[in-house]
Amino acid sequence: MRLFMLFALVLASAADVAAQAPELTAAQRQWVAAHRVVRVAPDADLAPIDAVDAGGHQVGLSADYLKLISTRSGLEFRTQRLPSRADALSALRAHRIDLVAATVAEDDQGIAFSAPYLRLSAAIYARSGEPGFTSLEQLAGHSVGVVETSPWPRLVSIQSGTTKLSRFADIGAALRALRDKSIDAYIGDPFTTADALGRLKFDKDVTLSGELALVAPLSFAVRGDWPMLREIIDAALKSISVDDEKTLRERWLKNASIPAAGASATATANVLPPSHAPAI
Fold first, then answer.
1. Helix or strand run (H / E) with residue 111
2. Who's near 50: CB < 8 A, 6+ residues apart?
């Protein structure tokens, strides 16, 4: 009887996996068989969306999405560390790696982009105890920090030509400049900023000041000569259930999305919905 129950559980589990697996075409299955290993360069500056643990392994929301994609497609994603996001994108264009997670689609002939799997909203951060800012109009004439490789420099420039942007290599450098009064404000998303504030222990020095009507959809970037990989990733993303997505986002984004002390009730209420809106 126990053997029968165990066998039934195994069959049920296999059936569940089969039900979740995307229906790949013959050409896609053939492509997976020939290119099973996909080299991924994580971005250590994007925790909890994308990060690297002490052992050098990719962790975070993007890594968990890739695990689900691996289970559903048969692809094997292997981490390959590179110094920066700029280096990773350069390596992707040169085909030295195959995939970069958490990128915003743009016109780049050397890179193909999957369907978005998360939408990020932008927020303004200021020094605690100061009046702060709640809009781009209020930032006019002020020095505002952004991460060079993030989507915000381009989006902010489109919305406001009067904002003076100071570009930084990473979130930590931008937040240090804000704390030390080298800049007047910082624009970033609530998830990676909250994580960085906690790691740097700046949560009492820097606070969420306002929310912006700017949204950046995040996708997986793949090498431009592998359109089939993009198609397979898109098929796998479509097969991920709403419940699975909810579980992933609650695991990685729930705690990080809590604004720093001092944020207004309006900002607190508005930050979460745009970022948690379904993207697939």
1. strand 111-113
2. 42, 43, 44, 58, 60, 61, 62, 63, 101, 102
Nearest to 235 by CA among 24, 6, 18: 24
Distance of CA 58 to the CA centre of its chain: 13
| Cα→Cα distances 223→98, 137, 227, Å | 5, 38, 8
* Residue 255 pLDDT grade (very low, low, confident, very high; cuts 50, 70, 90): low
**Its pTM surpasses 0.90:** no
Residue 160: pLDDT band with limits 50, 70, 90: confident
Q: Which pair of structure tokens corresponds to residue 202?
A: 């700046």
How big is the CA angle at 125 (ends 122 and 128), to the nearest 5 degrees?
Answer: 160
For 201, other C-beta atoms within 10 Å of its C-beta total 8
More confident residue, 230 or 263: 230
Eight-state DSSP code of residue 259: P
Q: Which two tokens stand for residue 174?
A: 């931008």
**Composition of the chain by helix, strand, coil, percent to 5:** 40, 25, 35
